[in-house]
TrEMBL record:
The keyword Cell cycle applies. Acts as a component of the essential kinetochore-associated NDC80 complex, which is required for chromosome segregation and spindle checkpoint activity. Signal peptide: none annotated. Belongs to the SPC25 family. It is found in: Nucleus; Chromosome, Centromere, Kinetochore. PANTHER family: KINETOCHORE PROTEIN SPC25, KINETOCHORE PROTEIN SPC25-RELATED. It holds the Pfam family Spindle_Spc25. Its main location: nucleus. Component of the NDC80 complex. Residues 63-121 form a coiled coil. This is Kinetochore protein SPC25. Residues 180-242 form the Chromosome segregation protein Spc25 C-terminal domain.
Length: 249
């Protein structure tokens, strides 16, 4: 059987000799080109692998950075939450403090209102008391004037009674009285015998001064503090001056 002739395929347009797709082409040349192409593909694949490897390394580093950033961010978020909890606690304490201040302010306002009412009442009472004091002062002044006038009217009679009794009383202090005695010495009726009675203690009488000194005066003062009879004590002292004068004659 005769071999069939191989058909020849040609390009419709003119191309360079190295791209001649004629079935009659040199297969060695084609294989060489294919080998060159495969080498180029391997080189490109190797370069791409290297690029992908570097990209993988970069991606891994980026992921690690992101993870570190995530840890830092989570830590910052937790710190922020803690600060927020602290702030909420402080805010709650501030609210409670503010509520306490409001309650205290209300109580203080009530106390101020009560004090104001009391002050108003006290002012009214003070005004009333001042009017009463003024009325009492006017009445006292009137009574004092009456007493002064009466004293002036009674002065001659008092002097006459003092002369007849031979006894004159003079208030040195509110709690101290001078007692002056005359008509004791027959030779000298105007001779003065005196005694100072002091009851500033409130419970006991004392005689800090006696002229001339009177014997037995301490016993008389002791009896006065026992029986509290001042008038009888004065009579006993006067009699003691007379008896002492007679005994010395």
């Amino acid at each position: 059987m005769a071999r069939e002739a191989k058909p020849t395929v040609t390009h419709s347009q003119a191309v360079e000799d190295e791209f001649n797709w004629s079935l009659e082409a040199d297969w060695a040349s084609v294989e060489k080109k294919i080998g060159t192409f495969l080498v180029s593909i391997d080189k490109w694949a190797s370069e791409q692998k290297h690029i992908l490897k570097e990209m993988g390394i970069h991606h891994h580093e980026s992921i690690k950075i992101m993870e570190d950033s995530k840890v830092d961010l989570e830590r910052e978020i937790e710190e922020e939450r803690e600060r927020e909890r602290i702030m909420l606690k402080e805010l709650e304490e501030e609210r409670e403090h503010h509520a306490n201040l409001q309650r205290y302010n209300q109580e203080l306002q009530v106390a101020v209102n009560r004090a104001t009412e009391q002050q108003t009442t006290l002012d009214s009472e003070l005004i009333k008391l001042r009017h009463e004091m003024m009325a009492l002062k006017i009445d006292k002044q009137r009574q004092k004037k009456v007493l002064v006038e009466q004293k002036e009217l009674d002065a001659p009679e008092v002097q006459k009674v003092e002369y007849l009794l031979g006894w004159k009383i003079e208030a040195v202090k509110p709690t101290t009285i001078w007692n002056r005695f005359t008509q004791i010495d027959p030779k000298d009726p105007e001779r003065e015998f005196s005694m100072l009675i002091d009851f500033s203690d409130g419970d006991r009488y004392a005689v800090p001064n006696c002229s001339p000194p009177l014997g037995g005066l301490q016993d008389l003062v002791a009896q006065l503090n026992e029986d509290r009879d001042l008038y009888t004590f004065i009579k006993r002292v006067r009699a003691g001056f007379r008896d002492q004068l007679i005994a010395a004659a």
